[in-house]
Write a structure and sequence with these properties.
Blueprint lengths: L3 E6 L9 H8 L3 E6 L5 H6 L2 E4 L2 E4 L3 H17 L3
Parallel strand pairs: 1-2
Antiparallel strand pairs: 1-3, 3-4
């Protein structure tokens, strides 16, 4: 099984969702790390985003971003299957 880490800035709009609970329930092999700052302040102010194994994933809405995060996680996990 692979290791996937999702980093989330706690000041970003994606935190309007229970991103940690949702992702860790759907993907038990994934760790969601809540951080004070990921140093993407310009992006953080503009749109919801997270890092999936260091790759920036963003969307226009928190829900769209979550959907894209799910896709990115599946891509990362596919490498280990």
């Amino acid at each position: 099984m692979g290791i996937v880490i999702v980093d989330v800035c706690d000041g970003n709009a994606i935190t309007t969702l229970d991103i940690e609970g949702i992702i860790e329930k759907e993907f038990p092999e994934v760790a969601v790390m809540m951080n004070e700052c990921l140093s993407f302040c310009g992006l953080c102010a503009l749109k919801p985003y997270a890092l999936v194994n260091g790759r920036r994933i963003h969307g226009k809405t928190p829900e769209e971003c979550l959907d894209k995060i799910r896709v990115a996680i599946k891509e990362e996990l596919a490498v280990y299957q």
